Amino acid sequence: MNIYSSRPVVLCLSGHDPSGGAGLQADIEALLAQGCHAAPTVTALTVQNTVNVSDFRVLDREWILAQANAVLSDSPVAAVKLGMLGSVDMVATVVELLSAHPHLPMVCDPVLRAGGGGSLGKDEVGYAMRERLLPLATIATPNLPEARILADLPDGSADECAEKLLPFCKHLLITGGHGDEHEVHNRLYSRDGSRRTFTCQRLPGSYHGSGCTLASALAGRLALGEGLESAVQSALDYTWRTLRDAEQLGQGQFVPRRLPLDFCS
């Protein structure tokens, strides 16, 4: 029997996307690509495809806690990645769970809108995440529309949203790509006042699951022990490559190619 050194385990709490473009499948693939093992806890079931989301159902609190605690009691979890929660009650459940494990680095991807624009939680979910969940996060990774919801600034710039949100979280990565700029600007803000902008070439088209891909890759880099700023750069570079190689698997947005074609060969 071959004995391999263990890969870092990343606990993922997110929704299931039946199209496979976003949600837990995105988490699993992105973490595999980092050399990590994803331990997925299903928070919600969605009805969606590459075009948009039409419905979702959040799972019961007891089921979430049972899934996550089964992993935490068995495996040496190295990091946590949060995706879709979908309700204020689910935010409270995850806060309860993570408060018992404050040593774990946690990446919070505040999934509030699908790529096609459909809602994945009422706006009060964003308020609950800001007030209760962001203080537990190592870093939050909203795109600009999500940052505006979290900050309650409907027309706010990235800088304005960061000023409003940094009292709640230590580090904030506000991703770009939602305007008409030729380059995408991804801005990393820290509570100590430091900031850095990462730029990359803007790619044509729109993508389903890019935020999940980025947050999961970042959680994987942190689980591997990489420093925060270097981990952000690694995750952004990896995500850009997945978008460059994305596939149109349906009638809507392109799906990032998170694993090489010869991954299983």
Assign the CATH topology: UDP-N-acetylmuramoyl-L-alanine:D-glutamate ligase
**Gyration radius, to the nearest Å?**
17 Å
What percentage of amino acids are in beta strands?
A: 15-25%
Strand-pairing-aware structural class? alpha/beta
Shape: globular
Query: pLDDT average, as an integer?
Result: 92
Helix content: 25-40%
**CATH class term:** Alpha Beta
Protein name: hydroxymethylpyrimidine kinase
InterPro entries: HMP/HMP-P_kinase_dom, PM/HMP-P_kinase-1, Ribokinase-like
Organism: Pseudomonas rhizosphaerae
Domain Pyridoxamine kinase/Phosphomethylpyrimidine kinase: 17-253
What does this 3D model show about the protein?
This protein has 265 residues and is an alpha/beta fold. It has a single domain, classed as Ribokinase (UDP-N-acetylmuramoyl-L-alanine:D-glutamate ligase). The protein is built from 8 helices and 9 strands. The chain has helices at 23-34, 61-72, 88-99, 123-133, 144-151, 158-165, 210-223, 228-244, and strands at residues 9-16, 37-48, 53-58, 77-82, 106-108, 139-140, 171-174, 183-190, 195-201. β1, α1 and β2 (37-48) form a beta-alpha-beta unit. The longest helix is centred in the C-terminal third of the chain and has 17 residues, at 228-244. The radius of gyration is 17 Å and the shape is globular. The mean pLDDT is 92.
